Amino acid sequence: MTVVDPGFAEELYQFGVDTALDCFNCGTCAAICPLIYEHFPRKMVRYIQIGAKDRILENPQELWRCLHCGLCTKTCPREADPGEVILGLKRYVVANWRRS
Ligand code: SF4
Ligand code: SF4
């Protein structure tokens, strides 16, 4: 069962993720991403929006698939900066991994 944390988006500010709530889930980033992988990176942004931090911490290696090519960020119509969101989530995962 996924535990929802409504404060997750705010918690991520300290890791440089402050644009996820601007996303309106159009899916452009998932369409342009060369990974062609399970709606990545859109689904990561969505996890933040709904506070599903467990989904990210249960499978953190997904984040390391990102090539940091920047295509998602360039094409996002909301300037939600999904590429930077992925980078910030990596910082979050590393910080939480150290604490556990
Ligand atoms: S392109 Fe931008 S607004 Fe559209 S789903 Fe991706 S992050 Fe959200
Ligand atoms: S930066 Fe990462 S998530 Fe964005 S399009 Fe490139 S590989 Fe996909």
What does this molecule look like?
There is one protein chain. The chain is mainly α. It has one domain (8-99). The chain has six helices and no strands. The protein has helices at residues 8-11, 28-32, 42-50, 53-58, 71-75, 82-99. The radius of gyration is 12 Å and the shape is globular. The mean pLDDT is 94. The structure holds iron/sulfur cluster (2 copies). Residues 32-35, 40-41, 66-72, 82-83, 86 line the site of one iron/sulfur cluster (SF4).
Fraction of helical residues: 40-55%
Structural class, please? mainly alpha
List each distinct ligand once: iron/sulfur cluster
* Mean pLDDT across every amino acid position: 94
Measured distance between first and last alpha carbons: 20 Å
Domains, number: 1
| Envelope shape | globular
Radius of gyration from the alpha-carbon trace, in angstroms: 12 Å
Secondary-structure element sequence? HHHHHH
- Would you count the extended β strands for me? 0
Structure summarized in a few sentences:
With 100 residues, the chain is mainly alpha-helical. Helices cover 47% and strands 0% of the residues.
Top keywords for this entry?
100 residues, mainly alpha, 47% helix, binds iron/sulfur cluster
Question: How are the secondary structure elements laid out?
Answer:
Layout: H1 8-11, H2 28-32, H3 42-50, H4 53-58, H5 71-75, H6 82-99
The structure holds iron/sulfur cluster (2 copies).
